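pinging the channel bc i need a second pair of eyes. not urgent but kinda urgent?? the chain im working w is below, pasted from the shared doc
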Amino acid sequence: MKKLFLSLSLLASLVFFNACTTDVDLYADYKDIPVIYGLLNATQDTNFVRINRAFSGSNSTHINANEVALIADSCNYPGKLKAYIVEYKQGYGNTYQPTGDTLKLDTTTIHDKEPGIFYAPNQKVYYTTEKEKFANNNGNSKYKYKLFVFKGNDTISAETGIVGGERFKIINSSLHFSSDANEKSSKIKFIDADNAVFYDMKFVFNYHESINGGPVVDKQVSYSCGTKSIDELSTEDGSYFFSYSNKVLFNLLEAAIGGDTVYDVNHPNVVRYFDRHPIQIQLSAGADELYNYIQVNSESGFSQAVPDYTNVTGGYGVFSSKINLRKEVGISSGAQIDLYGKTSWGFVQQ
């Protein structure tokens, strides 16, 4: 699952940025190929879709993809393509019928993209602000959303369900930690999201630091519980959970703070403290199209010329859905006592 986690991070860096077949001749002489990346998030006010083109060449017409990606005119279609998202609702027999609602995609330019594989700092993206539509899913109603992009006589399409729902939540109100090396593990529990097939969990411990009465600086240490498919997760009392070592917070702080910092001549009189809810739990959930894109393509290598998986008909890329949950929680009283007991780390009660 380490490979899956690394691939998910790679995909995240790309996102912000009806033909009758999914087959595209990627090796034709200088032919543009539609490439689409979009992850619909029901909690975001604005959802972005990247609609770009890639070029390939023949043996006699070599094209360096890394060079082309840095040229805006080579990545973008001229002007604005006709693009929209159509809403479908589940009916009898598990079939989906259009509701009549269409979400038009407009274009905007992001002006602060950091340099990378694609051109920067100005980058054109398509977007919609119809947040309410993507929050329609609940226990009794199921929806899908299909993207249509029209390029000349060609129609590119892709569809996805929306990850989320009212049930999706983190259950814990605090996390248990201990400096005792013999302590085993604890659990972070959550209720699963609609249409989600994999989850990524991490937590961040936030604290504050002041040296010699100087300005207070915000500090943090974080721990990833990993990325797991729904089939790899265990359940307890009707909820799913990730496990973590109770010693992990103290290991993280040991690495971040190190040694005797209170009396170290380079850092005299260090004072550290934390708030009532110092832990932020971060939980992400993704739909099956995204999972397949990451899992299949990471197995064969993202450097391949032609991806093994795409859900885009008439092009390449992925159109799917993901959602992020954040919850601030406390730490156990035993963990607080242990932290205050480590006088060399300088933690004091506020």
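so The first strand starts at residue 31 and ends at 40. and The helical segments are 2-15, 65-68, 72-75, 248-257, 288-300, 333-341. — does that match what u expected or am i reading it wrong
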